[in-house]
Amino acid sequence: MKRVFPVIAILISLSLLGLIYFQVIWLKTAKETKEKQLRENIFLASTEAAEQLMEDNNGFMSLNKKSELFIANEKIKLDLLRPSVIQRYSKDEIGAIIRKSMDKHFLEGIPFEFAVSDNNIMGDQVQSENFFRYFSDSAHNTNIAIPLQPPPGSNYENLSKEEFLVIIVPHQNAIIFREIFWFILGTIIFTLIIVTAFFLTIRALLRQKKLSEIKTDFINNMTHEFKTPIATISLAVDALRNEKVVNDPAKTGYFIGIIKEENRRMNKQVETILQAALFDKQELQLNMKKLPAHELITKALNNISLPVAEKNGRLEVALSASNDLIMADEVHFINLINNLLDNAVKYSKEEGLLIKLTTENAGKYIRILIEDNGIGMSKETLNRIFEKFYRAHTGNIHNVKGFGLGLSYVKSMVEYHDGSIKADSTLGKGSSFTILIPVIQ
Q1: N or C terminus of the chain: which is more exposed, having fewer CB within 10 Å?
Q2: What pLDDT shows up at residue 156?
């Protein structure tokens, strides 16, 4: 697993980067294609609009190249020219013709500005309202200039003033973006899906690796936890078979007591594992009652007093909360306090064990603070102590055993009581646990 995991991560990463790279190229190509198509459509629409503007208008008399006019006995060739587009059409009429051509060439709804001018946007001209606003910015707009010339062979060939139709489609990038918006959105969504799948895959692999390590550690711990009492019971049973022990009631009672104690110890370990399984399945049922927290804490202190005395330690207790009535399961609440006190004893220094337990009211809660002057915890350990099966490394201390379920159980129990727990610790100086449990007003 250690060798396969990096290979899988690298292959998936390369595949993801390759996919993103080709999607970017595809979007770039799609944008360029849309730009080319847009310019072609604008050019075709502009050309058609120019042709329509140059068609003969029934409001003007069609002239012949050879027509002549005699004024004041002088023959004047009719090079007065055909009336210009500016003279023949109003601004609104020109705009309507261009709009019709644009719609015909798949440019419906696309805004445009236009101008009709002689001498290429100089001199007499007709232009839309915002024409000059966009005319100077050719980088972001599409500009098309079409000369307005009569069709070859028409009556007005070479007789019309030179005019130009200029059409500007502003903000072409915005138009193209709207065209390919769904492509971009789809690309982003599917890329995010792939990235999420990649993340979940890596996380699942890491979790599987972690679970494999936890499983191995748990089996080793469980083996050691059960091996010692089983060996002790086996020795006690062998001793009971001895004739000298059988005939001595005191010795018989001593060895039976050992068997009972070791059996109780194994039952406790089995119960811990079963409770952890119930937490996973969310099947644990608590017998919640109105109970005084101080009374429950006192029972837990009585259970821990003997181990503290064996280490020549001290217990400092200050039950100062004026309101200690809570909704709690008696057995589990005592157990969670017991676990915290038991940890304070387990992870204590060789000399000078001191455990402080204080209570006080904090708004709608009772605050229970348990402090010790033990070996403390590193920052990394502190961040993981409530994880199931996690056990802190204790350096040269080898007498600390367990499954790594104690503090996980404590946190679950506090949450079952609608409370919260916070841990603080300094390596080499000790640890403190603060529990908040809602009180009954």
Answers
A1: C
A2: 55
